[in-house]
Design brief:
By secondary structure, this protein is mainly β. The chain is 4% helix and 46% strand. The protein has one domain (25-399): 7 Propeller (Methylamine Dehydrogenase, Chain H), CATH 2.130.10.10. Strands 1, 2, 25, 26, 27, 28, 29, 30 and 31 form a 9-stranded mixed β-sheet that branches. A 4-stranded antiparallel β-sheet has the order 3-4-5-6, with no helix packed on it. The chain is globular. The two termini are 28 Å apart.
């Protein structure tokens, strides 16, 4: 496998209206309708968001699957379905500036490589991590547009999967679905697909460029989401197709001791995020594969809120729950938890709901023209960037303000612990 970042000009186009590469296949679908009239929508969704700037990153109908921003929100990276990452500078006027168009992998075999995530490594916008589903996380220095390091673990396997002393055999890289780096930029963790009944959290030391170890028994199916705590570099949460959210303190000596909480969502998990509510409590938001939305207290695992797809659709003032697309959850500077949701066919509707015991209408996005799949939000400036299935990267500007205040509320627990017996060495 050989890789470098190659500059590719001519792929960016400002998009004042429609996208020339759009096939129109989804346009044949009949969209559902709002449950109320225009005037009532205006009153309910008091914040109006409009397109500040929009760029098309591909003319080949490539989806934008992943977005990441550096800590100061001066640079945004977009990972596409064609395994290319595009980098944007965001200036003080909240408009896009083209930084570079970069190719993150150049396979030398028939191996099909896809991107499973992008992350900026530290407080600077210069170091970018790109995860590939073939088991590699690459570190790029955007100043030189060169690969600086790669993190991968070659797993020994035979007809029966073997790992770390369980047997010897041929070498392979384990396919990964997700990864994250911790808040001090020292540790990378990857989450693998299930192979012959086993799934793994694998840890790497960024500075030493070496594999540290892993956790092997905390999930029973594909790991789909990993999020380190935004302040504490030792706290990690993981989500899986098995429906479990696990919270780890990775400074502990064993996997059993590191596992501080297990929450059974009873749903296949798509996305996790950390938030701090108005009561200064840390909570974990969960978007499921069935477009449900859950919120849990991080330490106790108690349920803060649960909403199914039909309830989210009703809160967004739409009729057809089968057309509801839950994008992600973000926190604003006031401690409010915001749920970004849209529609699944034309992508003509994109709205934000605010959690205050119930989901309350907050913001309406005017002019959206794609099914949104990824978003990043800057709580300091209120800037939101979205990407989706038509290849648009969109920066939204806000008009108006939400007048009603409210916070998160805790409810009764639906919390389960998993009992672990075996002792595994700490990953570092």
């Amino acid at each position: 496998m050989r890789s470098k970042l190659n500059s590719r000009g001519g792929d960016y186009h400002s998009v004042p209206g429609t996208y020339d590469g759009e096939t129109g296949e989804d346009m044949q679908l009949i969209d559902d309708e709002d449950t109320c009239g225009v005037e009532e929508l205006e009153n309910l969704f008091q914040v109006k968001c409009r397109i500040g700037n929009e760029l098309a990153v591909s003319l080949n109908n490539d989806y934008i699957l992943h977005l990441a921003a550096d800590s100061c929100f001066t640079r945004v990276a977009a990972g596409l379905s064609n395994a290319i990452v595009h980098i944007f500078d965001v200036n003080v006027e909240r408009a896009f500036q083209i930084s570079s168009v970069t190719s993150v992998s150049t396979p030398t075999s028939n191996e099909r490589v896809g991107i499973c995530g992008v992350r900026f490594l530290d407080d600077t916008p210069n170091c970018l991590l790109v995860g590939e589903n073939n088991g590699i996380v690459r570190l790029y220095d955007l100043r030189t547009q060169r690969e600086q390091a790669r993190f991968q673990e070659n797993i020994e396997c035979t007809d029966n999967f073997s790992y770390y002393g369980r047997g010897r055999g041929t070498s392979m890289r384990k396919a990964i679905n997700c990864f994250d780096s911790n808040s001090n930029g020292r540790i990378i963790c990857t989450g693998t697909e299930q192979y012959q009944g086993d799934t793994y959290l694998l840890f790497y030391d960024v500075r030493q460029r070496e594999h540290l170890g892993g956790y092997f028994e905390s999930h029973e199916d594909d790991i789909t989401s990993l999020r380190f705590h935004d302040k504490n570099p030792d706290i990690l949460c993981s989500g899986s197709v098995d429906g479990l959210i696990n919270v780890f303190d990775i400074k502990e000596e064993t996997e059993d001791d590191a596992l501080t909480a297990t929450i059974n969502t009873e749903c296949s998990i798509q996305k996790l995020n950390w938030h701090r509510n108005i009561y200064e409590q840390y909570v974990i938001s969960c978007v499921t594969d069935t477009n449900d939305f859950h919120v849990y207290l991080a330490e106790e695992g108690d349920v803060v809120a649960k909403f199914d797809r039909a309830q989210i659709t009703a809160a967004a003032k739409r009729k057809n729950k089968d057309n509801c697309n839950v994008v992600d959850a973000h926190s604003n500077g006031n401690g409010d938890l915001l749920l970004l949701t849209g529609t699944n066919n034309k992508g003509e509707v994109l709205r934000t709901l605010r959690l205050n015991k119930n989901l309350l209408p907050m913001a309406d996005f005017i002019g959206t023209k794609q099914v949104v799949r990824a978003s990043v939000y800057d709580k300091k400036s209120g800037a939101l960037v979205t990407g989706g299935e038509s290849g648009f990267v969109t920066l939204w500007t806000t008009e108006g303000s939400q007048k009603e205040d409210g916070g998160l509320a805790s409810s009764s627990s639906e919390f389960k612990h998993k009992n672990k017996k075996s002792k595994k060495k700490t990953p570092y």
